[in-house]
S-adenosyl-L-methionine-dependent methyltransferase
Amino acid sequence: MLSQNALLQRFVATGTLASAARALRGPHLAFTVRPGAARAINELQIFEPTRRENEIGQLLPETLGEERLTLQEQRLQIGSQELVLVEPADVDAVMDMYIHRGQMDRDPYWSRPWPSAVALAKLILQQPSIVAGRRVCEVGAGLGIASIAAVLAGAKEVVMTDREPLALECALRSAAASGITSVADFKDTTFSKSSRAQVRGELLDWTEPYLGPKFDVVLACDVLYEDFSVEPVGELLPQILSCSGCVLLADPSERTRHNREYFVDMMQSLKRPMLLEECTQIEEVMDGKSYSIELMKFHFKEGSESVGVKRLLT
């Protein structure tokens, strides 16, 4: 459950009755945030929404003046599993937020589900043994679709990482809205001490040194679409992965193929090489349109092991 302290850490909120702030019964909280107020408990007023299916609240980071970012719920069916995504209602509003902040290097498109994430989530739900009982980290999580699937598939611990705090707020709310009960409050820090919660969010910038723990499984979706991202991602993943772990990467087949090829070569050229163990191309249908997605699995080379790629899905 998102606590008062977590909300106070980043937002000041006003709503209906002050007494309602004591009744934080779940993740679906409607609230409006305003800048400039002192962070006193009695200024946090949160109320249960009357139209939860259509609108769960309005978020306003303190630096945004009087603009507001409205969140909505979207139901996403992945096989037999329904996920509930909490996302900004308007992508353009997210872009306006970045422009207002002067963050011209930020990409607002994390705020929508993408076929690569859906394809990887589907793989995880179809083959839960990949993550069951293991510690999992998703790089560039966005709305956290693959991470949520990993929790539902029985992962011991899942850490969603992204450099965008609002993405992590939405991802954690999505996890809670999808029925996951052990969700940590988001804290605006990089890799805090271990948490007892099954899923949590951590800030992670690919271009900065990685100081966090290692994981059994690392998930990555749509992380190779920019040429300048390939090397930082290629340098980061081996630092996150445990010696016996695996990386699962999903990427659109027809987009920036040269980046994917460079990434594979880079992994095989490491001091301790990472081999492309399994690879397959699948078709993912979203909104009536078919998308070709490449699913790849990497692991650290063991001894004299040679490259031998097999299909990830059979």
